[in-house]
Specification:
By secondary structure, the chain is an alpha/beta fold. It has one domain: Metallo-beta-lactamase, Chain A. It is 28% helix and 25% strand. Helix 4 packs antiparallel against helix 5 and helix 6 packs antiparallel against helix 7. The longest helix has 15 residues. The protein is globular, with a radius of gyration of 17 Å. The N and C termini lie far apart (48 Å).
Length: 244
């Protein structure tokens, strides 16, 4: 027996598309339901969060997650991935070899941000890297009925390897990862590429258009005007010129 988005504590963003905001780091996970396939966007910060997402996806859809898209290689988005046995895992080209995916780097970053050291160690030991990497764009068919999603390598920006997920529809939905943040100023760590970040947001806007709903890596769902304003703020913050 399946449950509704509301019963599961998820936000319905569009027909067959939802997301939840995980505790502590307010990290977004997304779900796209096809006729015979289920795509999860990001996997949480630990094996426990991954197990929670797996159980909730099963309750919402009555099926297991078949595809997992990781928007970028930071601990709060990837460390739950090992809980999705059998799912095909996607990332931007080069993400699996990114320095942030190194065992010690991931563990240290997770612990520095407050994850229990043992939980971080267990998740890093079980780390799943992308099985398929996306260069440019990749259309993913989620089954009969015309549900396709587009995986797009839109970075660099927040990291050197940023993947966005476009779900066409009315409205369309763009899962942005941490290229867009609503709950605070976008975080630029040592693996950020500020000189290209505004252009990555231009690419998101090209993908989604004016009417899409943009799902940030942290915070509430936003519109195209918010993405444009954040692009302009990032360009000013980092002294980067961009096309408008």
């Amino acid at each position: 027996m399946t449950v509704t988005w509301e019963e599961a504590g998820w936000e319905r963003v569009a027909p067959g598309v939802g997301r939840c905001r995980l505790p502590v780091w307010d990290c977004t996970a997304g779900l796209v339901v096809g006729a015979d396939a289920v795509l999860l966007v990001d996997a949480g910060s630990s094996l426990a969060e991954g197990a929670r997402l797996r159980a909730e996806a099963q309750a919402l859809t009555g099926r297991r997650v078949t595809h997992l898209a990781l928007t970028h290689p930071h601990f709060d988005h990837v460390l739950g991935a090992a809980e999705f046995a059998g799912a095909e895992v996607f990332g931007a080209e080069g993400a699996g070899a990114a320095p942030a995916y190194g065992r010690e780097e991931l563990r240290a970053d997770a612990v520095r941000h407050g994850l229990d050291a043992r939980a971080a160690e267990e998740a890093v030991d079980a780390l799943v890297r992308p099985h398929r990497t996306v260069r440019g764009e990749l259309a993913l068919d989620l089954g009969p009925g015309g549900r396709q999603v587009l995986l797009a390598d839109v970075g660099p920006g927040h990291t050197a390897h940023d993947l966005a997920v476009l779900v066409p529809g009315d409205p369309g939905v763009v899962f942005c990862g941490d290229l867009v943040e609503e709950s605070g100023e976008p975080q630029a760590g040592p693996d950020a590429v500020p000189s290209h970040w505004p252009a990555a947001l231009d690419r998101l806007l090209e993908l989604g258009g004016e009417e899409a709903r943009y799902v940030p890596g942290h915070g509430a769902v936003v519109d195209a005007a918010f993405v444009r304003a954040q692009r302009d703020a990032l360009a000013a913050r980092f002294g980067v010129s961009h096309r408008s």
